[in-house]
Amino acid sequence: MDIVQFLLNNLFTVPVALFIFALVLLKSSVIFVPQNRAFMIERFGKYRATKEAGLNFLVPFIDKVAADRSLKEQAVDVPQQGAITKDNISLHVDGVLYFRVLDPYKATYGVDDYVFAVTQLSQTTMRSELGKMELDKTFEERDALNTNIVTSINEAAGPWGIQVLRYEIKDIIPPQSVMEAMEAQMKAERVKRAQILESEGDRQAAINRAEGEKQAIVLAAEADKAEKILHAEGEARAIIAVADAQAEALKTVGEQANTEEGQKAIQLDLATKAIEAKQAIAKESSMVILPDNATDASSLVAQATAIINQINKSA
Fold first, then answer.
1. pLDDT tens for residues 80-125?
2. Given CA atoms 107, 108, 113, 115 in this order, what sign does their dihedral have?
3. Local structure of residue 84 (DSSP, 8 states)
4. Which position among 8, 78, 122, 264 has the lowest Cβ density within 10 Å, counted as fewest Cβ atoms?
């Protein structure tokens, strides 16, 4: 009766225990790996496999997750540190390192703490690269400095399964005395540039004035030349016009002289001019000798007519 009673009392306890054991077994054999993460699986303390995102199965109580590695890009702040440049200037430099895990196996078993290791490596590499450059170059060639640091870190971090994407220097702080000297130098450079710009402006202004005066002289000469040419052309045209008018007048006089009325008019004109000429001679001299018949107007006209007839015959 005792055995029967025991079985009746534990009839429902055994299935419950088996159900609980099955749940625990299922939970131990199934794992869900998040996106962009990798689980390192060990069996009896030895690396077994790398489980990536999704549903994965394990051997219960034998396999275990030894490490959880993120495959996302990570940003690590590089603490401020001292460095000495090629020209023996002490600097304090800090930065930010961006990297990601390419091989979770190497990141887990190739180095104890890959974040600490890559941070220390970036600091030593940065000191080494700064030691190859002068102070002025560290400010002017910051991009090249960042590129050189990334290249050097990637060469050394290959066995760790780490890829450094970029390195950014945040601050480069030189000593106060150097900063004051740099400020004085920059001020002198600004004054120098201002003086050079001012002298260039004066020079350009003088050149512009000279060019303007030159152009003004050239334009004035061209205007004077054009004026003289126009004046000469005007005088030539006036002379031609006067000559044409005189020729036309002489032609008209010649045509009229061949007529009887013309002959009378010429005789009258000659007599008038002869009288005027003798009057002018009388005014210039106190003594005038005249022929006997010089005061006779008809005699003067006759003399003039004879001259005209002689000219007509010779023509």
1. 888 888 888 888 888 899 999 999 999 888 888 889 999 998 888 8
2. positive
3. E
4. 8
Instruction: Determine the Cα–Cα distance for residues 116 and 235; give it in Å rounded to an integer.
Output: 105
Q: What CA dihedral angle connects 125, 129, 135 and 140, to 10 degrees? A: -100
E-state strands within the chain = 30-33, 37-43, 46-51, 54-57, 63-70, 74-84, 90-101, 162-173
Of the candidates 56, 91, 96, which has an alpha carbon nearest to the alpha carbon of residue 76?
96
Which pair of tokens denotes residue 104? 């979770």
Give the residue among 38, 44, 43, 99 at the shortest CA–CA distance from 67: 38
Decide: 94 and 167 in contact? Cβ < 8 Å: no
Sheet bearing 162-173, strands edge to edge = 74-84, 90-101, 162-173
Instruction: Compute the average pLDDT of residues 65-82.
Output: 88
Would you list the DSSP string of 249-293?
Answer: HHHHHHHHHTSHHHHHHHHHHHHHHHHHHHHHHHHH-S-----TT
Q: What is the pLDDT of residues 200-233, one digit of tens each?
A: 888 888 888 888 888 888 888 888 888 888 888 8
Over residues 3-46, the pLDDT tens digits come to: 555 544 555 565 666 667 666 666 777 888 888 888 988 888 88
DSSP, res 133: S
**For the whole prediction, is pTM greater than 0.70?**
no
Angle value at C-alpha 123, between 118 and 129, nearest 5 degrees: 120
296: tokens are 């006779």
